[in-house]
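Step 1: inspect the first sequence and its tokens.
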Amino acid sequence: MKPANHKYCRMSKNSGTDNLVTDTNDKGTVDVFRDTPLRYLGYANEVGEAFRPVIDEKLVWGSYGVASLYVLADTVSKAVTVWRNEHPSSRFKESVKTGVDVLVWQSFASVIIPGFTINRICALSSYLLRRSPVKKYSKPMTVAIGLCSIPLIIHPIDRGVDFAMDRSVRPILRGI
């Protein structure tokens, strides 16, 4: 489950206009946070939400902690990469802009929206299953529905967050 091809707020001058440049994968390098199994840590909270009916609440919140640490690690990694590659006169500004872009994107695309979505899918599934002839199996079926929903929501959420950020946060960052 590779995330959608999203842009990071690393500015470049092309034909006199500021344009967003896609992440380092365009240069053929491996992004450990996007192209390796480490990416699955960003989905920890969705898995926690799916298992909410059968596990302790503290474990669900712990899954949000894992996903949040993933987001922070990716943010720091991208900002440090920009810091190392930028000219000293612009490195602070460009690394902060990149960090803000990655932090906002990852927060919404990896934690907030998917966690809420799986929570609501599971809540609705549980509600309906408890009122059905299979109510005896409502908890494991709710978990299964939640887990099966994760791959279906990832790419639409990634694209939606890209769309929203391209029309809100990124133009603001571009203007700085």
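Step 2: inspect the second sequence and its tokens, then contrast the two.
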Amino acid sequence: MASQIHFLDIKGKPLLSRDYKGDIPSNTIEKFPLLLLDLEDENSADYKPFINHQGINYIFILHNNLYLCGLTKKNENIMTIIIFLSKLITVLTEYFKSLEEESIRDNFVIIYELLDEMMDFGIPQTTDTKILKEYITQDYYKLIKKSHDHLVQPPNALTNSISWRKDNIFYKKNEAFLDVIESINMLINANGQILNSEILGEIKIKSHLSGMPDLRLGLNDKGIFTSNNNTSTPISNNNNPGTDESNGKNIELEDIKFHQCVRLSKFENERIITFIPPDGEFSLMSYRLSSTQFLMKPLILVNCKTKVHKHSRIEILCSARAQIKKKSTATSVEIIIPIPEDADTPKLTPEYGSVKWIPEKSCLIWTLKSFAGGKQYHMRAELGLPAVNDTENLISKKPIKVKFSIPYFTTSGIQVRYLRITEPKLQYQSYPWVRYITQSGEDYTIRMK
């Protein structure tokens, strides 16, 4: 796959390099900064994460003012190398908390050790951080200086076909916790109309299961996943989201990504999700739904009007409505309202909840711990303004941002039909649990009037 892996700063100066095959001269990477400038000068509308020059392929990604670049002479799968570089960033970030130029300079030894374990002769090997952390630690080089009886041995999982899970795991109570989390990104105009929206979904599992359990997951998405529900045991729980959107409707998930533990051949042939899970918490799959697939209204709609009194003050009248079912309740609701940078002396009067003035961020934050479906609340604020003539320009053009979380609810209507757990050797009784959460994404915004 890759002959060399390089870490470079934002100017293209090499910080750390690893040569796996020796078929490319070590000074080849020195051409990368000039090639990168030539690529930028082309003003191409399509972003290309690779450069081909004199028979050498430069595949690269940018992260925190760092370039990670893989070099190869062969016609390799570019996306495979990009995915490996992304996994390398994930592993190093979990080791050092933040991957940047300083953390690379401070951790040369451990990075070289990780590069040797994650790739062998240019072929990816182990990229699971939990397995790597079992035998590659900051004290690893101190340990190998001792006698042979104290050598740190790699875990058996590395030599097994299931490299993401170690052997001999045992729990007194075997449980599996499954979370279906959907994040809503939405742009709403001042009249309450949706201009753009999408759902980003993720299924997370926290596995506390003994041995080598084999799990089979069934979802209600019959357009994508087909299975025989008569041969499985349904999950017993009270976390049914009960959305109207799920009735008589097929859900076509887009951009589906699975954890490496999922048997892709089984999914491609039979549309069944089967897997042996890693121990602990992990993301089983992620998906996306575009706005063209579903019709919905804003879950939390905010209407905010501003009135400027010349030379004196600005008045803000804000109302918020929870447009969800009455039996559902939004929690941890935060409505972030932008205000002029030089506003002061606020007088805040919320009908419900609390309002804080954050002068360093030039905003008001209206917090509602619990917001039941169908309810509507109002908030009034008055802030002083400096004595200037052009007060109309003081009104901020930034949109309102809303943060919230709605438990026991999914917007798409996706549901877990069953999670069957089998362990042939131990044959224990297991307890699967499922929970649904809909929350605001990074971009849930409402334009102001």
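Step 3: confirm your contrast with the notes below.
The longest helix spans residues 78-96. The chain has seven helices and 23 strands.
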